[in-house]
Amino acid sequence: MTPSTNTTRRAGSPTPFRRALTCAEAAPGYPGRRPPPPLRVDDPGALIAALPAMLGFVPERSLVVAILHEPARTGPSAIEAVVRFDLDGLTDPSRAEQLTACVASICLREQTEAVLAVLVDDRAGSRAAAAGRAAALVEAFGGAGIAVRGAWSVPAITAGARYHSLFERAGGLVGDPESSPVALSHVLDGRQIRASRGDLTALVVPDTARCARVVTWLGPAVARYRGGLTAATRTGAAVAYQRRALEWVLWQIAGTESGEPRADRELARLAAVLRDRPIRDAMYGLALGDHAEAAEQLWAQLARATPGSDRAEAAALLGFSAYLRGDGPFAGVALAAAVDADADHPMAVLLETSLQSGLRPERLRTLAHCGRQVAADLGVDLGPIGP
């Protein structure tokens, strides 16, 4: 089997069924990456060991479903997408129906009818429970026209953990996730494999104390920016005013890239500037450039340090950048935070819906190019476009 993560799937929220939009957490890839190394279908231990690399973190108490691409002609199957669900709550019939509908929608989009399933559960009696879940899963998927080619249970995805087939009397040992060919390939591409999903959510958890400090600066910062823009507009200098503001934001990103944390006053000013739509729109263009990583660091700082629509703005920029580079799980976490902060934020809702529906990341490059054009209209070159 050649694991191919060429598609973006829903990367999610703290609980996959928290909102109607939520589907699952996924492992999208990005066009232009080196092809992942082959992974044998007949070695479940290697498949299970590769899941952390495919997802970007080590799943716990999860159902992981690999969507297979099966060529019409004779040839190896490939993993087209990997989606993760929390195990807790799947005994609820309505949630099980949502799970089946989610997987069915992805299979329909990818024109496939086959999946593999891995249940990760460290709790006592989990093997017997997994067998029951597997039977229900096969029945539910079968009703949706989806064939389960294989299913396994494992207490944890660690080297030497024993997995068991849920369809036959067979089992084996999980390989070393850190030395998995897929993991090595992703590390060479500069992608992180996080120890747990909690490492993702920690990046956008609000810092209550800092948020309170930033808010004290926010009102005056907004008043200053709006007052300056109004005065510049009266004299026909609005574009020059916005250009200076955009250049200031880029300096903040450069400072973040050098490892310097932003001061509370700077974050307040940043939030105020991003309320100006042309500046905000230009920021989406950074996701295509060499400074995308530094920009993400700044958006994460701002998301943790601001409330409401300002937090949503920063989290949406963060989610978009992660989405575009193919980090579906982190994109989902960031976009869920954005929608939680402001359920009416248009871009956050649009991006979360796109991620939910399986829109491929390359389809979003148009939005990034539009952002670069907005910056160019203000007289600012955002630099070369990355691969």
From TrEMBL:
Q: Which InterPro entries match?
A: DUF4192
Q: Pfam families, alphabetically?
A: DUF4192
Judging by the UniProt lineage, the source's domain of life is Bacteria
Name assigned to this protein = DUF4192 domain-containing protein
* Source species: Nocardia rhizosphaerae
Write the lineage as a comma-separated list: Bacteria, Bacillati, Actinomycetota, Actinomycetes, Mycobacteriales
